[in-house]
Amino acid sequence: MKTLNIITLAVAASLTSPFSMAANSEIAVIVKSSNSNYWQNVQKGAQAAAKDLPNATVTFQGPASESAIADEVNMVVNAVNRGVSGIVLAASDPDALVPAIKQAWEAHIPVVLIDSTVSAEGAAYYQSFLSTDNTKAGELCAQRMIEKVGKTGKIAIMSYVPGAGSEIGRVGGFTHYIKQHSNLTIVGPFYSQSQMANALNQTTDVLSANPDLKGIYGANEPTAVGMARGIAQAGKAGKLVAIGFDGNEDLQNFVKDGTLDSIVVQSSYKMGLDSVTSVAKVIARTQVPKTIDTGVLLIDKSNIDSTEAKNVLY
Length: 314
Prior knowledge:
InterPro entries: Peripla_BP_I, SBP_2_dom
Number of strands: 13
GO molecular function, one term: carbohydrate binding
Number of helices: 10
Number of domains: 2
CATH topology of the largest domain: Rossmann fold
CATH superfamily of the largest domain: Response regulator
Oligomer: single chain
Keywords: Signal
Pfam family, one: Peripla_BP_4
Protein name: Monosaccharide ABC transporter substrate-binding protein, CUT2 family
């Protein structure tokens, strides 16, 4: 676990506030996985927030994989038990994390969610949710797909963890838009469990079983990387329209060499930055919006070297 030193909260919470700075002054940032460039970019944003908050401590951790839901639940429970001042959480499962954030609420510890929300029963237990509008992002990918492949033919969806909040919006938005605006046939979705190797193998199988495939969509970072590697290994680079999600160096290179038509990139850095700032505001009794859209950018060869793209790529 990495410890980051961050700033004095601008206004001390009064004794009448529902939230107050705990004795250890820790803000715990807990993400879906510590082994992804995407989540490491969230950490960089948290480090940037640290420059403006010197008397608190921010800790950063996540399980080994996004499918290790029980491990993430335990991390939240442990943070509550050690009396942290606030929690930033990317929930790997919309239902499993609800009891843990309820414990935080009962302990008067503010929770700010990022990336993926929790089910409706948990709505009262968190103070703000910062994320991409995943439904709109999925629709954007679908618009690009139709623009490139047309309205007939066959496309595939390579997804990640079924039921994750971001997955529901991102794949659901894509699927709904395709069905509403085209006659494209959808193969899948296939679930990689956010494991690159799984996505590679699944993509290899899908391409083999569907030689007439016109397009393929990889809905998160490890899935899109595995998908692109599978396309390249099958000799299909540039022969079908492949759209990925997120923007690590591997995905950038796949756009540059034409394996991927484009990537849709979230501002994970901004999530880390603004979520820590939001927790600090709640502790300081400053109201924050219940939902904050951190936006996305579609990146292809034409704009990958632009300043706007460099601000979200990692």
